Amino acid sequence: MSNVNATGESAGPRPVPDAADEDSIVPIFKAYTVSAAAWLVFATCIGLIVALKFPYPDLLTAPAFSFGRLRAIHTNDAFYAWAAPALLGLALFTAVRSCGVRLYSPMLAWISLGLINVAAVCGTIALDLGYNAGDQEYREWPDWIRMILAAAFVLTAWNMLATVRGRRDTDLYVSNWYTISGVLWTIIIFSVVLIPWYQYGLGQVAVQGYFMHNAVGMSFTPLALGTLYYALPKLLNRPIYSYALGVLAFWTNLAFYPILGAHHFLFSPLPWWFQTLAIVASVAMMVPVLGGSANFLLTMSGQGDWLHRSPAMFILVGILCYLTGSAQGTIEALRSMQQIWHLTNFTVGHSHLTMYGFITFAIWGGVYALLPQATGRTAPDLALGIHFWFSTIGVVIYVLSLSIGGTEQGLDWLRGAPFIQSVVDQAPYWLWRAVGGGMMVAGHLVFAFNVAIMVGWPGRQAAADLGPAEVAA
Amino acid sequence: MTPRDRMLVAIFGTSASAYVALSMAMAVLPGIWLSQTPPGPGVVKLTQQQAMGRRVYIAEGCAYCHTQQVRPLSTDTIFGRAAAPGDFAYQTPELLGSERTGPDLSNIGTRQPSTVWQFMHLYEPRSVVKQSIMPAFPWLFRVVDKAPEGAAAVPVPKEYAPTQGVVVPTAKAEALVAYLEALKQPALPGAPSAPAAAPPPAAPPAAATPAGGFDAAAGATLFAANCAVCHGDQGAGVPGAFPSLVGDPVVNDADAATHIRTVLRGLSGKTIGGTKYDAAMPPFAEAINDQQIADIVDHERSSWGNKAPLITAKDVAGQRGQH
């Protein structure tokens, strides 16, 4: 097992990378982030239209703008066109810098980014034309498009493994455990659902239960956590609290997470023991979640005097949402709670607390911490603050309104009210959700502006905030 | 192999192979096993048209708001019997869904047998259920000057109708409605044919005192849940499509026998006040119990200006026996 010394790079000075290294990873990291930020703005504008269709159902009545098509575009683009390339860019940069090596193959990285964008464009067009693989969450793109996406992950796995192979130490910094495993696991997840032979009727229900949850917890979660294990020590200039705790959380996440998927189909005709196993695993997930969150929070503790002015605020929100979102998921998985919350809007609030509050904030923390390290340009404090508060207040409104509304919806069903009553009662919450969503989108426009500043688009005269010495630190 | 490479193999060889094993155990093997679930009794394959309708259902993302899984919970009894494994034998891709913003559709073919209602509802949901937030699907219809020979125009209420011409369904709309009408849960062998003791809706609030010897709150709730989608929440119906209950001779008849029998057995093709109504009304004898039917009948007989003698569950039981 590795030890704390392996993190030495993250806290101490690091040799200035040579010109060739800068040439390869920097433009790649920039391109992944720019591409992802553009898709974030697009995917969440679509999300806002979808949200507005709840209070205003006759808004934009046309096939290309219909709810049933745009919802899948919003979720798939948020997953695969925003979060995936943003995290892969961060993971590639982390691999290069934490190992003090050059990127194995810039060409592979460019091809991967190209494939992701081809898949996202094709997937968006396909869904908008009604070519939906089956209305099953996060696997709506037609099979051949998801194969393109899987190919991008295969190339990235190859590139990352070959890159970290060139490191000097025997030990491998824990970030790479998470990110490279996350990419390998994603390839496995995609492969399992692309093979059709065991996916008929109820068999597909079991596979879908596995997929929709593993796509989040065995793909985005490890990639985001791996990024934070590098970005947070870098930002705070101190090592992670416990390397061993990070490794423990890694293995326990692997042991429990793959089992909990069926908790999306509690009370369904899936075998009862299969559902119970999922509930047990959902409870066991508190081990890696508490271990991981404690590790980050303890790393941050004592830094309060300047934390509030730093991009570490994004990481703090990310970790708090990881903790609360995961705890919420565990509670939701209990049968007694499912009776009220399952199939209601509460679930939508939960998925935004996790994919947005956790994953997306972690990405922002990583980008604001690491992109300036690559380019030597930081985003203006004011713009950083505007982005932070718009997105934070937005997601709080979003999650609270749907959590309260979803609970009321479930209670309406429980007391035997006419079904339409559960729709009527949601009206104010759906309006608030759109308000929260609007604030989130506004935050994303500021984020896109900040990315533009950090990659140096406004022109060379925009003075670099960090000198070369600081860049290297 | 260098120690550095051995370290990579140890970490990622273990994490990847452990995940392959867990994926086999939690997805592939259950998938193989459950894919062989035989169809339940009475579960049949879709016709070609119904299968096309199912593809329209998927393309338009209907499953994002409509589940097709009735759980063995009190919240779900209004949608049908609890789902059985054999129900899903021919359902690939599966459409169980994860959200129920709209009602569950496992048994919609039984619960709403009216083709006309489905067309009106798809063309503009608010033309039949004004509180609905379902998207309208006008692109599944065509506006023509005159309905073609042998086909009926959709009786869209004036406020939602195109300024000129009439609305007729396309092949896609016809297929989608054929699919929806095929969604009928076959009875499970050994299951009771009539609801022995369907759970009454929640206790009425104290404010709603029973008026005229029946539970007015229960009647209003049951009417809203079972009848209002066609007859409107004020009983006014939809002109030309669903008859109004306001001032209706059967509803106001002192002899309630026909009124009760209509609720028990359903109705179609009836001419009322010179208008022939093609839309089929479903029978409620199997769906709700005598007390609930009595509450609905009494609600109709005492609301919106209707004044007719009230009935009791005993009267309903009496009509159940008659043929």
Biggest sheet strand order of chain B reads 1-2
Determine the number of helices of chain B (DSSP H or I, runs of at least 4 residues).
11
Number of beta-strand segments of chain A: 0
> How much helicity do the residues of chain B have?
25-40%
Uncertain residue ranges of chain B? 193-212
Commentary on this structure:
The complex is a heterodimer of chains A (473) and B (323). Chain A has helices at residues 8-11, 19-52, 67-99, 106-128, 143-165, 174-194, 202-236, 243-256, 272-284, 286-300, 304-307, 312-332, 335-341, 346-375, 381-414, 419-424, 427-455, 468-472. Chain A is an all-alpha fold and 473 residues long. The two termini of chain A are 27 Å apart. Chain B is mainly α and 323 residues long. Helix content of chain B is 37%, strand content 4%. Chain B has helices spanning 3-35, 48-59, 108-111, 115-123, 171-182, 216-226, 228-231, 249-252, 257-265, 290-302, 313-321, and strands spanning 141-144, 166-169, 270-272, 275-277. Chain B has a two-stranded antiparallel ribbon. The radius of gyration of chain B is 25 Å and the shape is globular. The interface between A and B is large, with 89 and 81 residues.
Secondary-structure topology with pairs:
The complex is a heterodimer of chains A (473) and B (323).
Chain A: H1 8-11, H2 19-52, H3 67-99, H4 106-128, H5 143-165, H6 174-194, H7 202-236, H8 243-256, H9 272-284, H10 286-300, H11 304-307, H12 312-332, H13 335-341, H14 346-375, H15 381-414, H16 419-424, H17 427-455, H18 468-472
Chain B: H1 3-35, H2 48-59, H3 108-111, H4 115-123, E1 141-144, E2 166-169, H5 171-182, H6 216-226, H7 228-231, H8 249-252, H9 257-265, E3 270-272, E4 275-277, H10 290-302, H11 313-321
